[in-house]
Amino acid sequence: MGLLDGKIALVFGVANKNSIGWGIAKALQREGATIVLSYAMDRLEKRVRPLGESIGCELMLQADVSSGDELDAVFAAVEEQYGKLDVLVHSIAFADRESLGGRFVELSRAGLLAAIDISAVSLIELSRRAEPLMKDGGSIMSLTYNASRQVIPNYNAMAIAKAALEAITMYLAADLGQSKIRVNAISAGAIKTLSAGGIAGFRDLLKYAEVTSPMNELVSQDDVGDLALFLASDLSRRITGEVIYVDAGHNIMGYTDVEALARQLD
Predict the structure, then answer these.
(1) b or e along 209-232 (b: 16 or more beta carbons within 10 Å of the residue's beta carbon)?
(2) What is the rounded (10 degree) CA torsion for 160, 179, 2, 227?
(3) Residues 6+ apart with CB under 8 A from 137
């Protein structure tokens, strides 16, 4: 028996095989969950469909999370096919290139609001639609990053969006607890994904994260997937409203030996 036998999991935000959402989908399916995938735009279908087919997905649905009609269609399809939902994964992040770099004080209002809407407010939209389908309770999780709490060069609009996402996580957890729905956020360490490629200097950030974390290791899709599996399962039945780190301990480090770091980076 798997930890998630009989569970239905809806995963938003898979773009390709390197997506964190795909790592989560694989982990949940491995333990018995039936997976539904939702991708952001038509051009991603050719990447996502073969992935879904490899784990037996019956539903793979396109949805722009800024469109209420498209979101309604996704959740209606899940209800029609399965009659319920047990796990919701929000692995969605977007900021335009101009909002990821340059001086923070020059960040445009439009760019910041778009990043917050797509990357954070969308969690409220998904959760509102998920609640009626989680008839026996459930687990909702999202993906955040430590740029919400510490300054990471060039993250700019995305950092503010992640801070909003973490606040939304707390408020949703408080509100949905009466429905026995848990809401948590996974704060993953730096991982090379399609969206991360838009961050200037990301390769340097990866190296820095590796050499300054207590374990001197980077985080993988599988590491995040295993934490998501825990949060999706009954093993986490009394955990809600939390931001849980999987980053080899990088977030705890407040001081780095500059000389030792320089030697490792050479």
Answers:
(1) bbebbeeebbbbbebbbbbbbbbb
(2) 20
(3) 179, 180, 181, 182
Structure tokens given for 7: 């569970």
SS3 for 70?
helix
CA separation for the pair 44, 40 (Å, rounded): 7
In this prediction the pTM is: 0.92
Per-residue pLDDT in tens (0 to 9) along the chain, 266 residues: 899 999 999 999 999 999 999 999 999 999 999 999 999 999 999 999 999 999 999 999 999 999 999 999 999 999 999 999 999 999 999 999 999 999 999 999 999 999 999 999 999 999 999 999 999 999 999 999 999 999 988 999 999 999 999 999 999 999 999 999 999 999 998 886 656 556 666 677 778 788 888 898 889 999 999 999 999 999 999 999 999 999 999 888 876 655 555 555 56
Q: Which residue bears the tokens 């796990």?
A: 87
Burial of 189 (0-12, 13-18, 19+ CB in 10 A): buried
Which residues have C-beta within 8 Å of that of residue 253, sequence separation ≥ 6?
212, 213, 214
Q: What amino acid positions are annotated as catalytic residues?
A: 145, 155
Instruction: Tell me the helices (H) and strands (E) count for the chain, helix number first.
Output: 9, 7
Q: Are 188 and 20 in contact (CB under 8 A)?
A: yes
